[in-house]
Each structure stands twice: as structure tokens, then as C-alpha cells.
Amino acid sequence: MNIRAELAKFLNLCFVFSSAYMFWQTYSIVADTHSPIVVVLSGSMEPAFQRGDILFLWNRNKYSNVGDIVVYEVEDKQIPIVHRVLREHHSVKDNGKQLLLTKGDNNAGNDIPLYAGKKTYLNKNKDIVGTVKGYLPQLGYVTIWVAENKYAKFALLGFLAITSLLGDE
Amino acid sequence: MFSLTQRAQYIGNYAMTIGLVLIALIISSSHLDFFQKDILRHTKASIGQIKPIVGFRTSRFYGASNGKPKENTRIAFDLNTDLSGLFNWNTKQVFVYLTAEYNNTEKGTLNEVTFWDGIIKDAEHAVIDLKNTRSKYSVWDYVGDLSGKDLQFKLHWNIQPHIGPLMYGVAEGNDMIVTIPEPEKK
């Protein structure tokens, strides 16, 4: 066993992970959002988005427009929700705050029952993670599979271990 | 000469490159098609016969707080439009929505609200002809009342692609301005 070769392989792996991380962080800064790529988890926007679709976000817009599809987070809940803006109200003053009401295309009613506490509107600056700009179908399903299937994690780890064992050049 | 992992890696890289080229071709060709059809200027709509129906609701889900009645507005409207130009090989669906913009001068707010929307899945169903249709939503202003305000109605569209960027636009046509009347007092 050649220790130098093994170390080089390990370094290569580190390089792959760190460049992926750098890409993510750079995109975060450019798009001004803490999670610029999200995977759709529910069917509430069907038929536009299905579970597992990948969405690319942008958050440098000052105000959202009616019809924009936005990703928002409700206080105390970690799950991001992807829904469409139904109404917007903003102050004519510069940098005045904007209130939004959202709704899922596939839901019968608006999102007021989903909002935290007694809130009946979202605040653009505080609650919105980003606006959906680009769409890639289905490829995010792997992450749902890994997160929801208890054997998937082991399968993935096992696969990585076998390939690294077999990987003697 | 080649190990299993090298072969797998080679096939993987090759598949990814071909996939990316195909995606780029699909997106650029569909944008070229939309550019040639000039969809931003050639998508037209006529909105008419807007009849406001003003009433009161007492639920928190209709803008009321502490059980105080909140003024709510619905409309009946006519709509005629042909959105078939928005469909090509990369169109998954078109979301079409009728909104109204208004200015609340007392509170100093600009507002836009949706009264009606719909999903069109293919070009065969892209001609919309609605007569005296009730709005899908009951609308209220978040601080005041809608009565007395001038609402400017517009028809917007949003193309959801099979892959690539989302596109938005406003149908050209008569911009209807309707003043919402005072509700009948209870």
C-alpha cells in the first residue's frame, strides 16, 4: 500500500467537496439568499412543480410581483414552502416594507392558515428566502430518497466504500 | 488497461456533457421561437363588463380582525384571449391571472391583487372566452376598504417550462379601470 497515493486520493476527494461548497457559498452571496437551490418537497404547486424538482432562486429584488413563485420560511419551522404570490401591498416610501399573501396553485385556499401565529401576511424582507427563476425537473429526488428512506443512507455509504476499495488504479 | 471505476467515470462525464448540451439547445431554441413570435407584444386580451360585488365578511381568513366586519369585493367579468402563442416544445403549462392594481392614497400604499387565475396545460385549451364569470377570490385591502378606489385590471401570464428559466408577461389590450362602489350598508 502506497501511503502517498492514498493521501493524494484523499486530497482529491477534499478538493471535490470544497469546490462544491465554494460554488454553493458563491451562489448564496450573488443571489443574496441562505439557500439558493431548493428541492420541491410537496405537491402543492402541481402541475408546475412536482416532488424532487430543483429550483434556482434569486433574492436581490426589492419587491416581489404578483404571480412570482417565492420560497418562504415560517418562523419556528425549518421547512421551506414554495408558493405563488397572490397579492402584494407596499408603501410608496423608499424602502417601505412589502406585505405578501401567497397560495399554492394546487391548493383550494390561500396560505393564511400556514402562517405563524395570527399573521395574515408575509413580510418580503423577513420571510422570503428567494424568488424562483430557473427550473430543473426531477433531479433532486435523490435527496428526498436519502432523507426519507432509512436504508438509503447505508446504501449510499456502502456504495462509496466499495468504489473506494475497488478504486486502485 | 481501464479499471471499472475509470470506465464508469468516463461514461458518467460523457452523459453529463451530452445532457448539458441538450438542455442548452432546448432552452435557446425555445427562446428563439418566442422571440420570433414576439410573444411579449403579440399576446392580446380583452377584459370587459367588470361588475363589482361588494359585501362584508367577519372571518379572520377574509381580512377581518376581532370580529369586526371587513369589506370584501368580488367581481363578475368577461375575458377573451388567445394564449396559444405561449406554447412550444418547452412549455409545460401557462399560468394566467387577472389582477387589479390600485393606489391607496390615504395610507400611501401601492397594491396589486389577484381576482381570478387558471392553469392551461396545452395549446388546444389556450383560447379563453369567459362571459359574466365570477372571480375566484374575494379581495380585501389590508388596511382600508376597496370601495372608492380605482382598480386597473390586467391579464398576466407565466410560462412554466419543462426545463430552464420561468417567463412572465402582461397581455396587451384595453386596460380596464373600474371604481369600486360603496357597499350597501347593513
From TrEMBL, chain A:
<comment type="similarity">
    <text>Belongs to the peptidase S26B family.</text>
</comment>
<dbReference type="InterPro" id="IPR001733">
    <property type="entry name" value="Peptidase_S26B"/>
</dbReference>
<keyword id="KW-0735">Signal-anchor</keyword>
<comment type="subunit">
    <text>Component of the signal peptidase complex.</text>
</comment>
<feature type="domain" description="Peptidase S24/S26A/S26B/S26C">
    <location>
        <begin position="22"/>
        <end position="91"/>
    </location>
</feature>
<keyword id="KW-0645">Protease</keyword>
<dbReference type="InterPro" id="IPR015927">
    <property type="entry name" value="Peptidase_S24_S26A/B/C"/>
</dbReference>
<keyword id="KW-1133">Transmembrane helix</keyword>
<keyword id="KW-0256">Endoplasmic reticulum</keyword>
<dbReference type="GO" id="GO:0009003">
    <property type="term" value="F:signal peptidase activity"/>
</dbReference>
<dbReference type="GO" id="GO:0006465">
    <property type="term" value="P:signal peptide processing"/>
</dbReference>
<dbReference type="GO" id="GO:0004252">
    <property type="term" value="F:serine-type endopeptidase activity"/>
</dbReference>
<keyword id="KW-0378">Hydrolase</keyword>
<keyword id="KW-0812">Transmembrane</keyword>
<dbReference type="InterPro" id="IPR036286">
    <property type="entry name" value="LexA/Signal_pep-like_sf"/>
</dbReference>
<dbReference type="InterPro" id="IPR019756">
    <property type="entry name" value="Pept_S26A_signal_pept_1_Ser-AS"/>
</dbReference>
<keyword id="KW-0472">Membrane</keyword>
<dbReference type="GO" id="GO:0005787">
    <property type="term" value="C:signal peptidase complex"/>
</dbReference>
<dbReference type="Pfam" id="PF00717">
    <property type="entry name" value="Peptidase_S24"/>
</dbReference>
<comment type="function">
    <text>Catalytic component of the signal peptidase complex (SPC) which catalyzes the cleavage of N-terminal signal sequences from nascent proteins as they are translocated into the lumen of the endoplasmic reticulum. Specifically cleaves N-terminal signal peptides that contain a hydrophobic alpha-helix (h-region) shorter than 18-20 amino acids.</text>
</comment>
<protein>
    <recommendedName>
        <fullName>Signal peptidase complex catalytic subunit SEC11</fullName>
        <ecNumber>3.4.21.89</ecNumber>
    </recommendedName>
</protein>
TrEMBL record, chain B:
<dbReference type="GO" id="GO:0006465">
    <property type="term" value="P:signal peptide processing"/>
</dbReference>
<dbReference type="GO" id="GO:0045047">
    <property type="term" value="P:protein targeting to ER"/>
</dbReference>
<keyword id="KW-0812">Transmembrane</keyword>
<comment type="function">
    <text>Essential component of the signal peptidase complex (SPC) which catalyzes the cleavage of N-terminal signal sequences from nascent proteins as they are translocated into the lumen of the endoplasmic reticulum. Essential for the SPC catalytic activity, possibly by stabilizing and positioning the active center of the complex close to the lumenal surface. Essential for viability.</text>
</comment>
<comment type="similarity">
    <text>Belongs to the SPCS3 family.</text>
</comment>
<keyword id="KW-0256">Endoplasmic reticulum</keyword>
<keyword id="KW-0472">Membrane</keyword>
<dbReference type="InterPro" id="IPR007653">
    <property type="entry name" value="SPC3"/>
</dbReference>
<dbReference type="GO" id="GO:0005787">
    <property type="term" value="C:signal peptidase complex"/>
</dbReference>
<dbReference type="Pfam" id="PF04573">
    <property type="entry name" value="SPC22"/>
</dbReference>
<keyword id="KW-0735">Signal-anchor</keyword>
<protein>
    <recommendedName>
        <fullName>Signal peptidase subunit 3</fullName>
    </recommendedName>
</protein>
<keyword id="KW-1133">Transmembrane helix</keyword>
<feature type="transmembrane region" description="Helical">
    <location>
        <begin position="12"/>
        <end position="35"/>
    </location>
</feature>
